[in-house]
Amino acid sequence: MAKLTKKQKEALSKYDPQKVYSLTEASSIVKEISIAKFDASVDIDVRLGVDPRKADQMVRGVVALPHGTGKEVKVLVLCSPDKEQEARDAGADHVGLDDYIAKIEGGWTDIDVIITMPTVMAKVGRLGRVLGPRGLMPNPKSGTVTLEVGKAVEEVKGGKIDFKVDKYGIVHTSVGKASFSPEKIAENTAEVLLTLSKLKPASAKGTYMKSINLSSTQSPSIKVDKNSVVGL
Question: Could you give the 3-state DSSP secondary structure of residue 63?
C-alpha cells in the first residue's frame, strides 16, 4: 500500500474510515477532508448488485443535479446548418458538422459533451473509435441525439449528467465541488441515488445498492448509509 502523505493522514484523523455515516454527515466530512489545492470534484461510487455483462442488468441513466456540477461544461453540437443558430443561442461552445468531424478524426477532443441529431448520426457514427473510449459518443438514451439541440445544450449546461455502471458493477459520477455547501452536496447526491433506485433492473437479485462512498479528488472515501436518504 502506498505511503500516506501528511495531508492524507490529517484527513483520516478527522473521521473513522470504517464507520458508515448519514448522507448529511458525509457531505460535511467530505468538505473537511478535501486536501487538493484546487476546487476538488466531489464524487460518488455506488456498488450495485447487478451483472453488467447481462444486457438486462445494464444500468444507465440521466440525472439533472439540482445544484449543477459546479464545472464549466464544454459542449460541441454537430448539426445541420438550419440548427446552428439554435445551438449557439442555447450556449453551445462549438457548433458545426463536417469541419468538426475532420478535427475529431485528427485527434481533437477538447470537449466534455457532444450533442447531435438523428439525421447526421451516420456521419457522427464513424467517429466511434475516437469518441467511444473517451465516453463522448452521443447516445439517444442520454438525450444527446435529439432534434431539440437547443434544449439539450441548456440541460447539459444546467447540470444534467449521464452515468452507467462499469464492468465491475460500480456507478461512478461527480456530484459537485468541494466548494459547495454540505446541503448542496447532499441534495445532488440524493438525486443521483434516487434516480439509480428507479433504474433497478427487474432481473437483479438480492441487495441492489451494496455500498455508497463519497469522496473528493485526492481524498479518502466516506461510507454512506443508504437508509439516511429519504425515499430510498
Answer: strand
* Residues in CB range of 208: below 8 A, 6 or more apart: 48, 49, 50, 197, 200
> pTM for the full model?
0.81
What are the backbone dihedrals phi and psi of residue 39, each rounded to the nearest 5 degrees, phi first?
-75, 95
Averaged pLDDT of the chain: 93
DSSP sequence for the chain? -PPPPHHHHHHHTTS-TTSEE-HHHHHHHHHHT---SS-PEEEEEEEES--TTSGGG--EEEEE-TT--SSPPPEEEE--GGGHHHHHHTT-SEEESHHHHHHHHTT----SEEEE-GGGHHHHHTTHHHHGGGT----GGGT-B-S-HHHHHHHHHTTEEEEE--TTSEEEEEEEETTS-HHHHHHHHHHHHHHHHHT--TT--S-SEEEEEEEETTSPPEEE-GGGSTT-
d(CA 23, CA 27) in angstroms, rounded, equals 6
| Number of residues in the chain | 232
- Going by the DSSP 8-state scheme, the letter that residue 33 receives in this structure is T
Residue-wise pLDDT for 26-42, tens only, equals 999 999 988 888 999 99
The string of pLDDT tens digits covering residues 62-114 is 899 999 999 889 999 999 999 999 999 999 999 999 999 999 999 999 999 99
